[in-house]
Amino acid sequence: MRDAEKTVGNLIDKQTISFISSVDADGYPNTKAMLRPRKREGIKYIYFTTNTSSLKVETFRKNHKACVYFVDRRFFRGAMMRGTVEVMEDKKHKEMIWQEGDEMYYPLGVTDPDYCVLKFTTLDGRFYSNFKSENFLP
C-alpha cells in the first residue's frame, strides 16, 4: 500500500457502519456497531457521535484503549486501527460534528447533556485486501 492515508481514508468514507471496541473492567473487549464517523482528520483522528449515558462512554472514561474497524464487504477489504478514545463534551467538538436531524437522537439539540463526541486517535493499524494484510501508521 503506497499511501495508507488515502487508501484507508477512502475505505472509511465509503462505509455506512463502523465498529468500535473498548476494554471492560475485566479486561475483555466489547465491540459495538456505530454509524459512520462524522469527521476525520486524515486517518489519525476520527470523530463519532454517541450518547453520553451509553455503556461505551462509561467504559472509555475508565480505559481509553480502543480499536475501530471498517469493512468493505463488497470487495472483502478491511482496516483495523488501534488507538485511544477521548470523550469530548465541550461545545467546540459537539458543534463541529453536529448535523441537521441529530435532534432525533438528542432532542435538546447540540447542548443536550446526553450528546457527546468520541475522538479516536490512531496509533497504528492493519489493512486487509487481496488475501493479505499489512501494517500501517497514520
Q: What is the topology?
A:
Blueprint: H1 4-13, E1 17-23, E2 29-35, E3 39-41, E4 45-51, H2 55-62, E5 65-72, E6 77-88, H3 91-97, E7 115-129, E8 132-136
Antiparallel strand pairs: 1-2, 1-5, 3-4, 4-7, 5-6, 6-7, 7-8
Radius of gyration: 15 Å
Q: How would you sum up the global shape?
A: globular
Spans where pLDDT lies below 50 across 5 or more residues: none
Q: Could you give the count of β-strands?
A: 8
The sequence of SSEs as H and E is HEEEEHEEHEE
User: How many angstroms does the end-to-end distance come to?
Assistant: 13 Å
Indicate the mean pLDDT: 96
Overall structural class, as computed from helix and strand content, comes to alpha+beta
Q: What share of the residues lie within helices?
A: 10-25%
Number of distinct helices: 3
Largest sheet: 8 strands, antiparallel
Strand content bin: over 45%
Task: Describe the 3D structure.
The chain has helices at residues 4-13, 55-62, 91-97, and strands spanning 17-23, 29-35, 39-41, 45-51, 65-72, 77-88, 115-129, 132-136. Helices cover 18% and strands 46% of the residues. The longest helix is centred in the N-terminal third of the chain and has 10 residues, at 4-13. It has 138 residues and is of the alpha+beta class. It has three helices and eight strands; from the N terminus they run H-E-E-E-E-H-E-E-H-E-E. Strands 1, 2, 3, 4, 5, 6, 7 and 8 form an eight-stranded antiparallel sheet that branches.
Kindly list the characteristics that best describe this protein.
138 residues, alpha+beta, 3 helices, globular
